[in-house]
Amino acid sequence: MKWCLALIACMLVAQVRAEVPKELGEFIAKPDKAYEWKSKGKIETPAGVVYELAMTSQKWQDTTWTHGIQIFVPKGAKPQATMVLYNTGGAPSPTNAFLGLAISERVKAPVAFVYGIPNQPIYGKKEDGLIAETFTKYLATEDASWPLLFPMAKSLIRAMDTLQAFAKEEWKFDVIDFVVTGASKRGWTSWLTAATGDKRVKAIIPMVIDTLNFKEQMPNQVKSFGKYSEQINDYVERGLLDPKKPETPISKKLWEMVDPYSYREKLTLPKVIINGTNDPYWAQDALNFYWDDLKGPKWILYVPNAGHGLEEVHEGNKKDRDRVLNTLSAAARWFVEDKTPPAMSWKHEGEDKPKFRVDGSKDAKAYRLWTADSETRDFRKAKWVGNDLKSDGGAWSGVLERPKAGFRAVFAECEYDLDGLKYNLSTQIRILEPAAK
To answer: First-to-last CA distance in the chain?
Structure first.
């Protein structure tokens, strides 16, 4: 009898784990006659060719969404079966063109940028204010087409349709799948685009959206900062994150629908997560609330002394985005060229004397330990200091020193080389407290 009850319990747990919100998939599958695209020509530059397209992705809540698309082809590069798809807001600009060409040059393959995700302003609001507005409309109507992340993901689905059609028409070549990337809410969109189950999404590289597992993240943010980050005031002011407000079935459903964590059983594709330390949006140890639960191949990069914009600040106030661009591009090349990524692993052990082992595999060229100290668990203004480590047989291990007071955050990174492109991968961050007396 006990065996039977245990079996039933396991079956129920498996059933719960298998259940994921259906509303996203239903929204994506709904036909939309507004979709269309056209070519706007191409521009020859010393760095390569830039193709320009115009796309209408959908009609959402009586608003027709239009997008610019640019395809950057560096000199000497040829079409590949896998294309990098970077989603962002706004419209094509010289700054975006410089970024697109810089990434495509490093990837050595065509890279596409799709703009206008989301279309805005709508209802007089932009960015998080607009997302929060659509969340409140869902709570009022229970209409699952309202959350803004759904049409944002659909824009990427339509962009893949467009790029495949363009490649066949312009290059007489079949693009099969995509590496989808974007930052902040566009990183959020990258997760949800993969969560639709579209098989064309080969891998994702979400950046600075370190908030999966909302249910655990929000209490940890208050624990770390003493209150919610001012960066998410749009949600707080609308009562969407009120800890004193009892959770209702509809509010629970909302967060389940838009939290990539809800889809983790389906998200088995490769994923490279890029975060900045000192990001004012998220608690420093946010990754630890979902990392172990992610299925399939996964890697992490922390950009030290960089905020939400991933601009690393060096000594002398020198700033650059080399670390993020190099790792983003190297990871994209893994998937475009079907290369084998480094087998990096790490292990934290012990409480009184915390031990740390990092195995960067034989491919690692260098090891580095980054640390930052803070009086509280709020590391947003902390300075990270890196120290080179001497590996032993392709790995490094040691005992971490606890702070005498306050808190210390620690992570390690390994440096790699991909045909002359130097890039880094990181471990999780561990936060240490003073030793117990």
So the answer is: 48
Angstrom distances, CA of residue 45 to CA of 51, 98, 170: 11, 11, 18
Q: Please give the chain's pLDDT, 437 residues, in tens.
A: 444 434 334 433 433 444 789 999 999 999 999 999 999 999 999 999 999 999 999 999 999 999 999 999 999 999 999 999 999 999 999 999 999 999 999 999 999 999 999 999 999 999 999 999 999 999 999 999 999 999 999 999 999 999 999 999 999 999 999 999 999 999 999 999 999 999 999 999 999 999 999 999 999 999 999 999 999 999 999 999 987 788 899 999 999 999 999 999 999 999 999 999 999 999 999 999 999 999 999 999 999 999 999 999 999 999 999 999 999 999 999 999 999 999 999 999 988 889 999 999 989 999 999 999 999 999 999 999 999 999 888 899 999 999 999 999 999 999 999 999 999 999 999 999 998 76
Query: Residues with Cβ < 8 Å from 185, sequence gap 6 or more?
Result: 127, 128, 131, 149, 152, 209
Q: How many Cβ atoms sit within 10 Å of the Cβ of residue 141?
A: 11
For residues 217 and 289, give the distance between their C-alpha atoms in angstroms, rounded to a whole number: 7
Q: Is 137 exposed, middle or buried (0-12, 13-18, 19+ CB in 10 A)?
A: middle
**Which domains can be identified in the chain, with CATH numbers?**
22-342 (3.40.50.1820)
Does the reported pTM lie above 0.85?
yes
Q: What is the DSSP string of 79-94?
A: --SEEEEEE-SS---H
Instruction: Count CB neighbours of 422 within 10 A.
Output: 15
Q: How far apart are CA 47 and CA 69, in angstroms?
A: 18
